[in-house]
Amino acid sequence: MAIEEIKRKLFVSYSWTDQKHMDWVIQLATDLRTNGIDTVLDKWHLREGQDAHAFMEQMVTDADVNKVIIISDRKYAERADQRVGGVGAESQIMSSELYGKVDQTKFVAICRENDENDRAILPAFLRSRIYIDFVNDDLYEDRLEQLLRWCYDKPLYIEPEIGQPPAFSDNNISPVIRRQAEFSRITRTQPDGSGSVSAVVEFFRNISTDEALPFSQDVEGVPKDEQIYNDILALPGLISRVITVFEQSVRKSELSAQTASDEMHRYLERLLSKYEGGNTNWSGDFVKFYGQFMLVASVAVLMDNGHGQAADAILAEPFVLDEHGGMTAKSVSFGRIGSYLRSLEARNDRLKLRRLSLHGDLIKQVCDTAGFSFRNFVQADIALFIRSANSGDRWWPDSAVYVSDAHGVLPWYIRATSSKSRSSILSLLGLKTKADLAALIEKFNTRQIKNPEWSGAWSSVDVVQLTNLVAILESWKD
Fold it and tell me: Cα separation of 15 and 27, whole Å?
């Protein structure tokens, strides 16, 4: 059953600490309702004359209420532990339900405050349980996504299916076992970071593009565009594996992040050399899809982990493309990695799908299957469009079709109004000075750079609005 077909009803338990806390609770409840959750909050649903205790008990025990969140700060924890007031009554009911009657996935704590030792402040009956950390407001969007995934029972990390036993050899370790062991070694926690840099280098240099991305053989009776489409749908397993290693490496240390970025750059160069393989003009389309996806996803990972300079470097460094049988080479920009996939156009026409961007649809589907943040992908994709257009290069942000005609601002660019985050975003966009930013805005205003459009001018992306460029400029004090 699709997510939108599942009725989700959630009750919010909290303590009235002060007006600021109350405003935050209302905002969270509003965001949950905006994302399809029937959220019950006493401020909205408890009326004068009603029995508050009966209302709370009904919400906690009602079978129609799928989820209950407990927003815990210091006052909530104290009242729950001392069984004081409404919070005390609720906690008694919840602890009984939690330990006796219901599926334990019905309840989750939302931590809003840490103690002096930086430990989560939670009521006693929840201290041994996993909670969602909402203490840092700068991470609100990420934690909201985590909460929504919990509400819909769609975790970010999904247990993989058990595969087939490897093909054993009498004399050698199976290549599959070797790669899996290598993957485990890199992603295993190493507090001192020892060995991680060399392991990352080894991992990326041992990925065979021929093995990972074989060209499909023609299948009688199956249209070529359908074969390529199916090849792309099979990519999330590989994407998840490579991006996981990349992200783990980025999080270890500055040195590891830079090494991972350098190796990803070389990996993309190897993929680029495969773009024109196969026996038809479409044969390399799934390699092109993979290469473009990996570049955008890598930039998104670096930006999401605070490595704007490394993201800039991965784009600024020329890509070396072999030519003339591999004897000589030429320098190309990152824009060469983004390609128009004619096979998808052919499929759209053949099946009369009438999709604005089948490529954009596939990106979202692959992100969802691989467990990668689609929103971060879109934010990076638009950044690459801005950077390339401002330098006279070409990059088409296929995923941005999902924010065409949208209002509001993307999260990265909201944070960029602070001096701490501004430099990171500007590096990604290829801008160095305030004058560069002002000139970029002027290019959009005078249509020297045109906003991405689909289906003529019916659907378009307002880049300046989505990326908050004017507000970033106004916040930039000399």
Answer: 15
* 288, two tokens: 């092109």
Give kind and range of the element (H or E) at residue 332.
strand 328-332
Nearest Cα to Cα of residue 182 among 157, 160, 204: 204
pLDDT digits (tens, 9 = 90+) for 127-140: 778 889 999 888 88
* 100 residue type, one letter: G
CA distance 185 to 199: 8
pLDDT at 4 over 60: no
CB of 473 closer than 8 Å to CB of 438: yes
The sign of the dihedral angle between the CA atoms of 58, 59, 63, 68 is: negative
Rounded CA separation 383/390 (Å): 11
- Is the separation of the CB atoms in 193 and 200 below 8 Å? no
Q: What is the pLDDT of residue 280?
A: 62
Beta carbons of 404 and 459 less than 8 angstroms apart: yes
Please identify which residue in the block is written with the tokens 């799908």: 353
**How many CB atoms are located within 10 Å of the residue 28 CB?**
23
Q: Nearest-CA neighbor of 21 among 9, 29, 33? A: 29
CA distance 204 to 179: 11
End-to-end CA distance of the chain: 55
Torsion (CA) 68, 70, 71, 73 in degrees, nearest 10: 180
What's the CA dihedral at 175, 181, 182, 186 to 10 degrees?
160
Beta pairing, strands 459-460 & 67-72? unpaired
Model confidence at 337: pLDDT above 60 = yes
- Parallel, antiparallel, or unpaired for β 319-323 and 328-332? antiparallel
Between the CA of residue 141 and those of 28, 108, 215, 226, what are the distances in Å?
10, 18, 39, 37
Find the helix packing angle between 52-61 and 85-96, rounded to 10°: 30
Among 247, 257, 341, 329, smallest CA distance to 294 is for 247
Predicted confidence at residue 53, as pLDDT, reads 67
Rounded Cα gap, residues 454 and 316, in angstroms: 28
Distances (CA, A) of 149 to 107, 240, 297: 14, 18, 20
pLDDT tens track for 275-288 = 876 556 677 888 89
Amino acid of residue 308? G
